[in-house]
Amino acid sequence: MDLPQGLHTEKPNQVCRLKKSLYGLKQASRQWYSKLANCLYDVGFTQSSSDYSLFTRKTTSGFMALLVYVDDIILAGDNAKHISEVKVFLNRKFKIKDLGRLSFFLGLEVTRSKRGIHINQRKYALDILADSGMLAAKPCSTPITKDIKFNSDENEPIHEEGTYRRAIGRLLYLTNTRPDINFAVQFLSQFVQSPNMYHHQAVNRVLRYIKGSPTRGLFFPSESNMKLNAFSDSDWASCNFTRRSTTGFCVYMGSALISWKTKKQNIVSRSSSEAEYRALASIACELQWIKTLLQELQIETSDSAKLFCDNQAARHIAQNPVFHERTKHIKIDCHVVKERLQNGLFHLLPIK
């Protein structure tokens, strides 16, 4: 390494002996990001305010988007010549390796056809099964059962807690393309501090479920409209320990699933209507973020999104600006639903 600025030595032409990898330094990630971002600014890219890892460039001759994760990059655009120019520029600055058309990225496998794009994590799922010794296990049809005992006090914690935590961590990354295991994984992740044998058996059931469908993933059809449809739901006081509710929502663009979430709420709700209203607040913020991101990607979505909720009281609270006995205990941040509804971000509709 060259000597840092301000360090003077008696002997000329001296260098520092590097005893630690540059990736191991605390400031390495920030310096690398600053270097890459400045280079992209020089060729006309603008950083997204919705996702800091996304850079976009809009010119009269085309649009280009660049997504970066550390030193892995996806480059997309509607002008092949501009894409080639950016690749030549990056190669001159950093000596990149061009992998061609997108087929594998951070464990995500991408396949293309005339019908659309399919994304899954088949290899990653099989690696999880192999490392856990579940490749020869018998598949099951559901990732979790309702009657399993998770709160048994007489069950001793398992000794191999690291194995359980490692499995949960890997399953959390698998939920990037597997919304069908999202609820089960988020539920089991609440017991990583002191898992017992019941939790370990539940994780094995999730792995057996994955064994039955390792290629399942997300499909984005080529012929689909750009209208947003969102669905919100919540249970009430389902957690036996904290009595908190669980939020669940999903967002579709046309017929393609683009966003979903399952998460325990932060505080205890006093009624099922309040729990449903808090779920509406979560998806309202998600819709606002998606709307901003689509605008930066030059995708026109002039129509308001359709948000479906099966709780009549929650819909009335969102549409009624009057504070009364049933709503005055709800925190102010939850009333973002009413604000977004009045601004025309979405239409709130009933669903059975």
- Quantity of strands, as a count: 13
Compute the CA-based radius of gyration: 25 Å
The end-to-end distance, rounded to whole angstroms, is 65 Å
Residue runs with pLDDT of under 50 for 5 or more positions: none
Q: What is the assembly state of the chains in this entry?
A: single chain
Helix fraction, binned, reads: 25-40%
The CATH homologous superfamily of the largest domain is named: Ribonuclease H-like superfamily/Ribonuclease H
The figure for the number of domains is 3
**Major sheet: order of its strands?**
11-10-9-12-13
Plain-language structure description:
The chain contains 9 helices and 13 strands. With 352 residues, the protein is an alpha+beta fold. The strands form 3 sheets. The protein has a 5-stranded mixed sheet. The protein has a 4-stranded antiparallel sheet with strand order 1-2-3-4, with helices on one face. A 4-stranded antiparallel sheet has the order 5-6-7-8. A hairpin with a 3-residue loop joins strand 6 (108-112) and strand 7. The chain is globular and about 75 Å long. The mean pLDDT is 87.
List its salient traits.
single chain, alpha+beta, TATA-Binding Protein, Nucleotidyltransferase, domain 5, five-stranded mixed β-sheet, four-stranded antiparallel β-sheet, 9 helices
SSE map:
Blueprint: H1 28-42, E1 46-47, E2 54-59, E3 62-69, E4 72-77, H2 80-94, E5 104-105, E6 108-112, E7 116-120, H3 122-131, H4 161-174, H5 182-188, H6 197-212, E8 217-221, E9 228-234, E10 246-253, E11 256-264, H7 272-296, E12 305-309, H8 312-319, H9 336-342, E13 346-350
Parallel strand pairs: 9-12, 12-13
Antiparallel strand pairs: 1-2, 2-3, 3-4, 5-6, 6-7, 7-8, 9-10, 10-11
Helix pairs in contact: 3-6, 7-8
